[in-house]
Amino acid sequence: MVSFLVVGEGFPAFNVLNFLLSKSNARVAGYVAGSHASVKAIELAKCRNVELLDPAILTGAAFFPSVADADWLININGVTLISKEVIARFPMRALNMHPALLPNYAGLHCHQWAIRNGERLHGATIHFMDSDIDAGPIIRQVRTAIQDEDTGLSLFMRTMNIGAECLLYVLDDILKGTALSCRSQDISQRRVYFHRHALDGTIDWSWPAEKLINFVRAANYEPLASPTYQPLWRSLNGDIIIKKLRRGEVISSEAPGKIVDVCETGPVISCGSGETVVITKAFHMGKPVPPSDWNRFLINAG
Fold first, then answer.
1. CATH number of 199-296
2. What is the band of 300 on the pLDDT scale with cuts at 50, 70, 90?
3. pTM, 2 dp
């Protein structure tokens, strides 16, 4: 019988719990929910008499109970930073599903950065946890193409789906007694993104069209709120929140940030490299801005 301490939230944690609870040679010693958003996972744990544990045990703020001393620690979509001392209890037996491709995208909101950086591929990584953030040896990776229509939300959801599925293959190997092969990360390629790095939503119209479009769609979590920034155009009439952009069809010699035309879907804005973009969805003071209203806004964004 192999025992597991499961940490995480949402449907990825539910899928892991459901998988382990369906196996005759697996035992879930405890479950640490990241937040109240883990309703289904919490309900499943209660129904199957799995011990619900305080997230404080992961940070050292609460005593680590003996019931949590399982064979394996599994972290999937967890929001609590697990202390080095807790990870040390599970040498080469603590796994994390990181929703990005390591070592290039470690840290937080990596799916947003992948879009912003113009990547064509994203993915998820199953790796051993060690004392540094997302730095342990890589066990398995899975990739997905970033589509032109992807938003921050759509890429995040797809990454979580394929990452959870990938983790189930690894858990199946553990239960079969298969040794997990792994490789060390190339630290020279390592980039770590922190939450504070993704909070500035100010639009710079001197950027080329592709960078502007990627910046806007990476922050689009409709119908939910973005966990990081909102793309802002600061006008004299107040901040305009940009939700959608598309590439313009005309070339402009005007200064970046100037409205050169207003078409059926919205204003055509000059940007870097002589290109243009069209704002197709925006909000001002919480209300959508129709194309007919754009002429009242400041012509030059500055």
1. 3.10.25.10
2. very low
3. 0.92
